[in-house]
Amino acid sequence: MVPTLLFLSNLGATEFLLIFMVVLLLFGGNKIPELMRGLGRGIREFNNAKNSVEDEIRQGMRDAEKKSLDK
User: How many CA atoms lie within 13 A of 26 on its CB side?
Assistant: First the structure.
């Protein structure tokens, strides 16, 4: 299952172009790569934290199942 962002599902090429132009005007051409690097780091950190929580939950479930089998 691929998660989709609801607000991005109805955007077309014109809307993306308009958003890009606004970002270009606000940040300038030199700041965009820095902005994208920061965004990439943030997404990577979020995914790492999400995976860590999922691993802890799975480990807890395995431990609970193991304890119930031992009794």
Answer: 7
Query: Given this model, what pLDDT does residue 40 score?
Result: 95
Rounded Cα–Cα distance for residues 56 and 51 (Å): 9
pLDDT tens-digit readout, 30-46: 888 888 899 999 999 99
CA distances from 5 to 27, 46, 58, 68, 71 (A): 24, 16, 26, 40, 45
| Angle 33-10-13 from CA coordinates, rounded to 5° | 50
- Identify the CA nearest to 67 among candidates 59, 48, 28, 43: 59
CA dihedral (10, 11, 12, 15) positive or negative: positive
